[in-house]
């Protein structure tokens, strides 16, 4: 009879642990998914911002005899622009390259309609994402204009502002959902742990009544919480990266390739899972330690 009771308790305990682990894994999977989306959304946002370029133009009027001198000056200017704080990437466009691009855009194959070098040489500049901010774009243009040899800087400021505002709005929504999922993670994991501890409330009180100290009673529950949190986080992360790998392989893109960001995401999810599990365990156990014996039947 005693053996059957022990087996029943073991099965119930195992079932309770499995339920807690699955709950933790599911919640952390959703939390990690939002983290992955947020990381990739931020990187994709930066990528789009880098495609918004400004064009710095050199003087188009000079004597042919000064061409060598002008070429040297433009090369020095190009090198200086590459070192500027707002500049992410700079591409030098010669007069010949500008003429070819103009003919290509107009669908012209002949040189008869205009002279080859009527377009000025220029530098196409991709700004760093933080300088695409409408409050900083003017500062970036001013810095570029101050470089000797540059006579004009042009950009589509309206397009930049629209793109920046739209991307910022999307990132705010994703961040908001990530915070919501974090709150849900705390609530759901806490409820699962509370139900698990509730089933052991009489054992907790019995240990306390026979003289066990609170720290001694808490220790095995905390160790178990750490193990369950780690297992749940591991299952959630394995599932997450499995789903993410399938998704990226289907669309033919790996998105962010920065392994350091993935490492921090894994560490964050693991720490959140263990921390919430341990905290919920301590709170739930402490509650029953402070409860009177008679109240255990009504808790």
Automatic annotation (TrEMBL):
<keyword id="KW-0997">Cell inner membrane</keyword>
<feature type="transmembrane region" description="Helical">
    <location>
        <begin position="262"/>
        <end position="289"/>
    </location>
</feature>
<feature type="transmembrane region" description="Helical">
    <location>
        <begin position="20"/>
        <end position="39"/>
    </location>
</feature>
<dbReference type="InterPro" id="IPR040690">
    <property type="entry name" value="FtsX_ECD"/>
</dbReference>
<keyword id="KW-0812">Transmembrane</keyword>
<feature type="transmembrane region" description="Helical">
    <location>
        <begin position="170"/>
        <end position="193"/>
    </location>
</feature>
<comment type="function">
    <text>Required for cell division and gliding motility.</text>
</comment>
<keyword id="KW-0472">Membrane</keyword>
<keyword id="KW-0131">Cell cycle</keyword>
<keyword id="KW-1133">Transmembrane helix</keyword>
<comment type="similarity">
    <text>Belongs to the ABC-4 integral membrane protein family. FtsX subfamily.</text>
</comment>
<protein>
    <recommendedName>
        <fullName>Cell division protein FtsX</fullName>
    </recommendedName>
</protein>
<keyword id="KW-0132">Cell division</keyword>
<dbReference type="GO" id="GO:0051301">
    <property type="term" value="P:cell division"/>
</dbReference>
<dbReference type="GO" id="GO:0005886">
    <property type="term" value="C:plasma membrane"/>
</dbReference>
<dbReference type="InterPro" id="IPR003838">
    <property type="entry name" value="ABC3_permease_C"/>
</dbReference>
<feature type="domain" description="FtsX extracellular">
    <location>
        <begin position="54"/>
        <end position="153"/>
    </location>
</feature>
<dbReference type="Pfam" id="PF02687">
    <property type="entry name" value="FtsX"/>
</dbReference>
<feature type="transmembrane region" description="Helical">
    <location>
        <begin position="221"/>
        <end position="247"/>
    </location>
</feature>
<feature type="domain" description="ABC3 transporter permease C-terminal">
    <location>
        <begin position="177"/>
        <end position="292"/>
    </location>
</feature>
<dbReference type="Pfam" id="PF18075">
    <property type="entry name" value="FtsX_ECD"/>
</dbReference>
<keyword id="KW-1003">Cell membrane</keyword>
<dbReference type="InterPro" id="IPR004513">
    <property type="entry name" value="FtsX"/>
</dbReference>
């Amino acid at each position: 009879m005693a053996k059957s009771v022990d087996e029943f308790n073991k099965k119930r305990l195992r079932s309770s642990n499995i339920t807690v682990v699955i709950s933790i894994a599911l919640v952390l999977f959703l939390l990690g998914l939002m983290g992955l989306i947020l990381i990739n959304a931020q990187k994709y946002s930066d990528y789009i911002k880098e495609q918004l370029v400004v064009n710095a133009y050199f003087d188009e009027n000079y004597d042919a005899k000064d061409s060598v001198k002008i070429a040297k000056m433009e090369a020095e200017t190009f090198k200086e622009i590459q070192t500027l704080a707002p500049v992410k990437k700079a591409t030098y466009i010669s007069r010949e390259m500008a003429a070819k691009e103009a003919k290509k855009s107009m669908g012209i194959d002949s040189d008869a309609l205009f002279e080859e070098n009527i377009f000025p040489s220029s530098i196409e500049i991709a700004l760093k994402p933080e300088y695409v901010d409408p409050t900083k774009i003017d500062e970036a243009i001013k810095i570029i204009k101050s470089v000797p040899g540059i006579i004009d800087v042009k950009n589509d400021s309206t397009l930049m502002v629209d793109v920046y505002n739209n991307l910022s709005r999307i990132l705010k929504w994703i961040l908001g959902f990530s915070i919501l999922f974090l709150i849900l993670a705390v609530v759901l994991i806490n409820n699962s742990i509370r139900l698990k501890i509730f089933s052991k409330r009489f054992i907790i009180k019995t240990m306390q009544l026979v003289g066990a100290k609170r720290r001694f009673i808490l220790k095995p529950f905390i160790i178990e919480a750490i193990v369950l949190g780690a297992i749940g986080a591991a299952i959630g992360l394995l599932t997450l990266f499995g789903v993410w790998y399938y998704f990226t392989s289907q669309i033919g893109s790996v998105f962010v390739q920065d392994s350091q960001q993935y490492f921090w995401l894994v560490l964050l999810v693991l720490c959140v899972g263990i921390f919430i599990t341990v905290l919920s365990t301590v709170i739930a156990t402490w509650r029953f330690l402070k409860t009177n014996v008679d109240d255990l039947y009504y808790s």
